[in-house]
Design brief:
Largest sheet: 3 strands, parallel
Number of helices: 11
Helix content: 55-70%
Number of strands: 6
Shape: globular
Radius of gyration: 17 Å
């Protein structure tokens, strides 16, 4: 619902990514108009396959619309998290800044870019341009009950345990 709210938001929204943004964090960022990420050792991506899950079709569409179909396929199948520099090169984020300036830069982009334009035509154009984003997040494209059920599958449980073990090291 948070992703749908961002996608449908009638005013522009900028993401201020001041750390890692795997899975849901990446989804929320993909729903924003602009993504500013902290430079440094941070990762972003849809890593669901690493824990035994398949990202729903609608979520896959969000990544395809930003990085292109071929690159999204590679990233999704591998469950790839990319570092900040690679995210910028792929277009997954729009800008990298020092961690202390992420929120200020995201706000400044909104103020100096979109909010400086004539309001009505900017908002109407934005609404039309984001129609595919909104459609990707419709419940039938997310299949939330299937996704939740998959959390209990043996592959997913094994993947989650392996991830927790790696994080503990």
């Amino acid at each position: 619902e948070a992703a749908r709210t961002l996608a449908r938001c009638p005013v522009p929204v900028a993401a201020a990514v001041a750390g890692h943004a795997p899975a849901g964090g990446c989804v929320l960022a993909l729903c924003c108009d602009y993504r500013v990420m902290a430079s440094g050792p941070f990762g972003i991506g849809l890593n669901e396959t690493q824990v035994g899950l398949a990202a729903p079709e609608g979520i896959q569409q969000l990544l395809r619309r930003v990085v292109g179909a071929w690159r999204a396929e590679r990233m999704l199948v591998a469950g790839e998290l990319v570092d900040a520099e690679r995210a910028l090169a792929l277009g997954l984020v729009d800008e990298l800044v020092d961690i202390d300036n992420v929120a200020n830069r995201a706000r400044a982009w909104l103020e100096t870019t979109l909010l400086a334009l004539p309001r009505t035509p900017m908002l109407e154009t934005r609404r039309m341009a984001r129609a595919d984003l909104v459609a990707a997040l419709e419940p039938e494209r997310i299949e939330l009950p299937r996704f939740i059920e998959a959390w209990y599958a043996p592959d997913t449980q094994a993947g989650l345990h392996a991830l927790v073990a790696r994080l503990g090291k």
